[in-house]
Design brief:
Length: 287
């Protein structure tokens, strides 16, 4: 597990491009038959991925957590951006299809990832946060008939926003949030931009009570997203390629524009779970 420390905004505004990328960009997440994890001191979030191709992959705590097992003191959200696969949680097997997810509560000892087809492997994207209580483990589907242990994303949590004229026609699909999937602090969702739209959030905002991690994907290898970060009056950018993630501190804006449309997963942890608790930044105030 790679460790990253927190950074002050007063320091970040002096960073070079290379230093910005070292501190905030996460590359190489989806490596065949490996679990890759990055532990950030910013709200103690862990960002990672499990990509089982020819093997089952077992999630372990590693020395960094000083725990018997990964979820001894943590909760975890998973969204599959690859082919169909399975997640075995303490002996119960969940079939997790493309664009489906899971919330796995604190105290689950064994988590095992596998793919149904090595030619079309699952790509399990992971966000994990410290937890103080156990919430129910559930499979999260975008549509279908509710079953025991399964949550169907509510219609009100599939929100269409923006317009083509402003290059930000997009659909936000909220997976983990209060009123749908119970958690201690973790929230996760997926936003998809329509063809011809490239801006994921504009006007942009900050939220001092939560940090965020973005995973950008659904792009060809020669495409990219300009991810904008920093204080509103000290903006910086990071060029991000397909299936790369970026850490966004609570003091930073988190907005982006791509060379074409794309999809991204957002994960938030911190002080509260009020999705709309954000501080908007007027476009005239950006520098």
């Amino acid at each position: 597990m790679e460790l990253r420390t927190a950074s002050s905004p007063r320091d970040v505004k002096h960073y070079t491009t290379e230093r910005l990328r070292e501190e905030f960009l996460i590359q190489g997440l989806f490596t065949a038959d490996e679990i890759k994890l990055v532990y950030s001191h910013i709200d103690r979030i862990i960002t990672g991925a499990a990509t089982p191709v020819n093997e089952k992959l077992v999630l372990t705590a590693g020395e960094e957590l000083r725990a018997e097992y990964f979820l001894q003191r943590r909760e975890m959200g998973v969204i599959n951006i690859g082919g169909p696969g399975k997640i075995n949680v303490d002996g119960k097997v969940y079939a997790v299809g493309a664009r489906e997810g899971m919330y796995i509560g604190m105290g689950k000892r064994e988590v095992v990832f596998e793919s149904d087809d090595s030619a079309d492997p699952a790509k399990f994207y992971i966000n994990s946060a410290p937890a103080h209580r156990t919430c129910p483990t559930v499979l999260i589907k975008r549509e279908g008939v509710p079953e025991e242990g399964t949550v169907i994303i509510k219609d009100e949590n599939k929100v269409e926003l923006g317009c083509l004229e402003e290059s930000n026609h997009r659909t936000i699909c909220k997976y983990i949030l209060p009123g749908q999937v119970e958690s201690c602090q973790l929230e996760m969702g997926m936003t998809s931009l329509e063809p011809g739209s490239v801006w994921n959030t504009m006007p942009c905002h900050t939220h001092d009570r939560r940090m965020e991690v973005y995973l950008y994907f659904d792009m060809p290898q020669d495409a990219f997203v300009m991810h904008y970060m920093g204080e509103p009056n000290e903006t910086r950018h990071i060029v991000i390629r397909n299936e790369e993630a970026v850490i966004s501190p609570s003091w930073s804006i988190h907005s982006g524009s791509g060379s074409r449309n794309y999809t991204f997963i957002w994960g938030m942890v911190g002080e509260n779970q009020d999705f709309d608790d954000m501080d908007a930044v007027a476009m005239k105030d950006l520098m």
